[in-house]
Amino acid sequence: MAGERFDTVIIGGGQAGLTTGYHLNRLGRSHVILDAHERIGDAWRKRWDSLRLFTPALFSDLPGLRHEAKRWSFLTKDEMADYLEAYATRFGIPVRTGQRVDRVAREGDRFVVISGDRRFEADNVVIAAGAYHKPKVPSFSAELDPKIFQIHSGVYRNPSQLRPGRVLLVGLGNSGAEIAYELAGTHETFVAGKAPGQVPVKHGTLPARLGFRVFRFLGHRVLKTSTPIGRKLIPKLKMKGDPLIRRRVKDLDAAGVARVARVAGIEGGKPVLEDERVMEVENVIWCTGFGYDFSWVDLPVFAEDGEPRHERGVALDAPGLYFVGLAFQYSFSSDALPSRGRDAAYIAKQIATRGPTTRSAARVLA
């Protein structure tokens, strides 16, 4: 198996991995980023076609490179993807695409990262691939009649994927609300579940601009693991879904989306609600979120619920292992663009304290 040796291997070439690479470049540390996608930014490109960021461009820049979009506009998914690609090129960040990591383990005094037939050895590993990759779908989905088309929101692209007829979206978070609003123009649309709350002002308006600044200040400066109020509220916030942002309940009502009770199971191959109503639909979209998937990390660094044990992204049980981009890693904004790479900068500095500074090229292992 062909191998190479680096000071640091970063897993994941999204905004978290790229900003970590940016800061390691500035500190003169040799590293490589491994990304499973064929092109930088594909994690954004492969989301549904009409997706736009909730965060204005003003707060969507990564360190060192301002986006050319109008400051209070909202980037499309493809604009964000292209920006990430340009970012890597602008700063010479070493990203190897098409490298899906199969295993991370420890051998002696170094880490080993396996990607297909490639072996990478490193003193440090940064997991920047995000935590939530495994689509969550209830087990009873297997009982759904095969004549009913079903997909998870993670693979939804546009209305043309669906069969003619009625659509039931299961889950009223932001994804469910956005997709339901879009589908209302082509299908009779139902959305099951209760909204987790919603922002008090219309997205994109002048009042929303002020509200966003306040929200960002609280999420970035106040709700941190280093503040008493942050330590008190963050565990509670983890248990709640994000409020509806762009498409609120009244928008769904105006578009003709019918809101129904939660889905309780399957009866006769059809979804049945908690109020015992059986839904006659031709399509089901599971907007039920994603769960942890660190099954490829063969290290004893996870709690029983699958969450990494760490302190501000530094693994507690494996010196040299780090995380960037986790929800609530250090603050409410840690997994969002408004964090602007603060956690990545911190992790890069932690890596710099572990050994001599070097920008040496990778060494090929025999």
Give a quick precis of the structure.
The chain is α/β, with parallel strands linked by helices.
* Helix and strand pattern: EHEHHEEEEEEEHEHHHEEEEEEEEHE
Determine the CATH topology of the largest domain: FAD/NAD(P)-binding domain
CATH architecture title of the largest domain:
3-Layer(bba) Sandwich
Could you tell me the strand content as a percent range? 15-25%
| Unreliable residue stretches | 357-361
Total of DSSP H or I helical runs spanning 4+ residues: 8
Number of strands: 19
The chain-level structural class is: alpha/beta
Can you tell me the number of structural domains? 2
Q: C-alpha Rg, in Å?
A: 22 Å
Helix content: 10-25%
Characterize the structure shown.
The chain is α/β, with parallel strands linked by helices and 366 residues long. It has 2 domains: 2-133 and 290-365, FAD/NAD(P)-binding domain (3-Layer(bba) Sandwich), CATH 3.50.50; 137-198 and 243-286, FAD/NAD(P)-binding domain (3-Layer(bba) Sandwich). The chain has helices at residues 15-26, 42-45, 77-90, 174-183, 206-222, 228-238, 249-255, 342-352, and strands at 2-11, 31-34, 95-96, 103-107, 110-115, 118-127, 132-135, 149-152, 167-170, 189-192, 258-260, 263-267, 270-273, 283-286, 290-292, 310-311, 314-315, 321-323, 363-365. Strand 4 and strand 5 form a beta hairpin. The longest helix has 17 residues, at 206-222. The N and C termini lie close together (9 Å).
